[in-house]
Write a structure and sequence with these properties.
It is a single chain. The protein starts with a strand and ends with a strand. The protein is mainly beta. The relative contact order is 0.25. The strands form two sheets. The chain has a six-stranded mixed sheet with strand order 4-5-2-3-9-8. Strands 1-6-7 form a three-stranded mixed sheet. A hairpin with a 5-residue loop joins strand 2 and strand 3. The protein has one helix and nine strands, in the order E-H-E-E-E-E-E-E-E-E. The chain has a single domain, classed as Hypothetical Protein Aq_1857, Chain: A (Sandwich).
């Protein structure tokens, strides 16, 4: 299961409301890269890809590919907004370590 905080939910709904392109949900994935080996990716999606797990969290449809799902099981996505930066923050219980920015992790 994946959890969205209230701040993340509000940020996503704001993005959906003001998006120029229509979409049905967000793809949440893990890709290779970043300074720790893996990095998180969130992007709008029109439909699930073959094999995706579809979940609904706080009224938002999330698509998880089969390779990413076990790496982010139990993860909480938050949203940080300050005067100098804003973005999603990932709290992943499966990560053995992460980089300073929190966008890259190891297992």
């Amino acid at each position: 299961m994946l959890t969205l905080t209230d701040k993340a939910t509000k940020a996503i709904k704001r993005f959906i409301r003001f998006s120029e392109e229509p979409f049905t949900g967000l793809r949440v994935a893990v890709t290779g890269g970043g300074c720790s080996g893996f990095q998180y990716a969130i992007e709008p999606a029109i439909a699930p890809s073959e094999g995706d797990t579809t979940i609904v969290a706080e009224g938002i449809t999330l698509y998880l590919d089969p390779a990413s799902a076990p790496l982010i099981e139990g993860m909480t996505i938050d949203f940080k907004e300050t005067l100098t930066e804003s973005g999603f923050v990932f709290h992943n219980p499966n990560a053995a370590g992460s980089c300073g920015c929190g966008k890259s992790f190891t297992v």
